[in-house]
Amino acid sequence: MMSHKKKSFAFIINPISGNRRYEDIERKISSCFASTEIEPLIYLSEYAGYAEDLCRRLVKQLSPPTAIVAVGGDGTVNDLANGIALSGIPMGIIPHGSGNGFARHLGIPMNVDRSLEVLRQEFSLPVDMVRIGEKYSLNVSGVGFDALVAWKFQHSQARGLSSYVRIALGEFFKYQPETYDLLVDREQSRHKAFLISLANSSQFGNNFLISPRASVCDGYLDLCILHPFSWWAIPGLLIKMMGRKIDQSPYLEIIKAKKVTLQQDGDIWHLDGEAMSGGSELQVEIVEKSLSVIIPESRRKVI
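Below the sequence we write its predicted structure tokens.
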């Protein structure tokens, strides 16, 4: 008689992400799977890059986990995606960050109990990722103003949304849009831009959308060029972002692309919100159906 192999879900928790106690989430995970055939394995991320390294080790095990779950924000989700990419092992998400842009795009509940219930259903869907150099982006990466703010925030002693807003406001009134050279699917162009986003999903986070019609399953990345604008245009831009109509703004140009080469004078960029350096030239391409993600089954036709 063949023995039944028990399933296991590896939960990788970022203990400094979000504003909820991770001990409470550990308790909820254990309780949720207590009466199922799924064994929860819980790990705490110990340092920057830990989650990605751990995923690579888990993937290579003789009996790897049935799924690997990110408990954190977009940075944690990105770490797991880079460690799991092309392995065939599904990734789950329990949103626990400040923005949770990728989870929001997928329709994953922000409530821990409800997101755990999604995991229990085990419905997964293959999605695209954007490869930037040797890294993968799941959500929205880019250059320009938001990359500068991410860099300043990452090197600031103060944390939290209020600190991020303070830095953004402080930089906005002295920021000068830069000129970027683009090669988009063999077509060259030059643009002066406030920022350029490389969007796989629709939003930065907190329902601030940059490409409302973006799909993570269409085989294209959305190259979003936000052209220079006057300060008085800010309220309208924010309203359009929150109202899923930013693509109707005359300041925003969106180009569907397979491959992009982006050149800038500086070298700062951001990978799903995490500040990076060394980006004076970015080689970007879509990698179709390179990651399976556990999502609500009701969302399968709209992501």
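The chain has a mean pLDDT of 92.
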